[in-house]
Write a structure and sequence with these properties.
single chain, 413 residues, four-stranded parallel β-sheet, 13% strand
């Protein structure tokens, strides 16, 4: 049956983001044998609420018993329990709802980036069988947000390596479950620009092809840089860094490797100046700016942006989204795997734990899905909520759920 168009599919796009352009833009091993499955351990299941609840069904279906198994057999699902007496009906809080999930949102819980990254990686790679495991993961120091954002590019095809944070208990437990063939450590030394340039070079080696675009993000404005992680994971476009008034030598050198590849500068002139943009334009053939004055506005601008195949171009219903706090740049990298798989969607930001910003509410209303006659043929929105309630509380999550809800509009019986 032919798929119906969403009721608001023909709404006009927003006015394009003001951009600066220096020139015409010109478009420019075999996996190893499956390894013996490993079951998740109880400690991680207790720490990662999301993963525990997601696997409830798996626990019922597959049980927890087992002995020697071949690599082709399914691994046992983890032991999972729900608080409260089995004879009781159980409250919403005991079951983890709505703070864990609603009908249009799912929370990746965690009070720190390492736990969030572990949960996100296991959401993308459940690891109950060899086919559900990544071939590689990327380890970065938890305090190195710039390297983590740059490393998000390795989540794109063909590497598909989620970011984990080195040294944490949650990471050790996640690695035990994910059991990757390769673990690569990046970051941990040098400036943001130097580390990002090294990761971009590694990306070129592993991908064996030039990127379609390059993002230059502000090293002095982490909140503005955050959305770059989601796009890098989605596209394979590397992230480089620049200062407010400084184009680092490492970034310039990295740009010279791909002078015909378009460059997109993320953030307003207060984050990366027009002088820096002109300096980039002296190296490459095309440079443009994606701009929002605040982290919240900048993330929305990037979500809306489209230019000759670059950008999310999310201006209509039927998409996935990832929502995080603007004060945790490491969280952007921790959640990047969600933007490069599943419902593939942009990172959006909120500047409060308790209140959804008005401009973000307006954006969600612009892309709210609707139907006239048949909801099963409509397009749907789905939102990942990142972090615990100290980051984004349940009231804000409930508001996002309402904004993402499919609505009946007009005619129909």
């Amino acid at each position: 049956m032919k798929r119906e168009r969403p009721i608001n599919a023909d709404l006009p796009d927003q006015e394009p983001v003001a951009e600066e352009k220096t020139a015409e833009q010109k478009p420019p091993e075999e996996p190893e044998p499956a390894r013996q499955p490993k079951a998740l351990t109880p400690w991680l299941l207790g720490a990662l609420v999301l993963v525990a609840v997601v696997f409830i069904v798996a626990a019922v279906l597959f049980g927890t018993g087992g002995s020697d198994r071949s690599a082709d057999e399914t691994a046992p699902a983890p032991n999972v329990s729900v608080s409260g007496d089995a004879s009781d009906s159980g409250s919403a809080d005991e079951l983890g709802y709505p703070a864990f999930a609603t009908n249009n949102t799912t929370r990746i819980g965690g009070s720190d980036p390492a736990t969030i990254a572990a949960a996100a990686a296991l959401a993308v790679y459940p690891s109950t069988s060899p086919s559900q495991r990544p071939q590689a993961v990327t380890l970065v120091p938890e305090e190195d947000w710039a390297a983590a954002i740059a490393a998000s590019v390795l989540m794109a095809e063909p590497v598909r390596a989620p970011v984990l944070f080195a040294g944490a208990d949650a990471t050790s437990e996640a690695l035990e479950a994910l059991d990757p063939a390769t673990t690569r450590t990046v970051g941990g030394g040098g400036s943001a620009a130097k580390q990002a340039a090294k990761i971009a070079e590694l990306r070129d080696e592993l991908f064996a092809s030039a990127p379609q675009a390059v993002i230059v993000a502000p090293s002095a404005k982490p909140g503005i840089a955050m959305p770059a992680a989601a796009w890098a994971a989605r596209s394979g476009d590397p992230v480089l860094f620049a200062g407010v008034d400084d184009l680092p030598a490492a970034t310039a050198t990295a740009l010279r490797r791909h002078t015909k590849v378009p460059v997109y500068v993320l953030g307003p002139s207060s984050a990366i100046s027009s002088d820096v943009l002109r300096g980039i334009g002296a190296i490459v053939k095309s440079v443009k700016r994606i701009s929002g004055e605040t982290p919240v506005a900048n993330a929305i601008a990037f979500a809306r942006y489209s230019d000759d195949g670059f950008g999310w171009n999310v201006n209509d219903p039927g998409h996935g989204f990832v929502l995080a706090r603007d004060q945790g740049p490491e969280d952007a990298a921790a959640a990047a795997a969600l933007s490069g798989s599943g419902t593939w969607g942009p990172l959006l930001l909120t500047d409060s734990a308790t209140k959804l910003p008005a401009e973000l509410r307006s954006y969600f209303l612009d892309v709210k899905p609707g139907y006239t006659d048949n909801p099963t043929r409509a397009f749907y929105n789905r939102v990942w909520v990142i972090g615990d309630e100290e980051r984004i509380d349940v009231n804000q999550q409930a508001e996002v759920n309402e904004l993402a809800e499919l609505a009946k509009i007009g005619g129909g019986e």
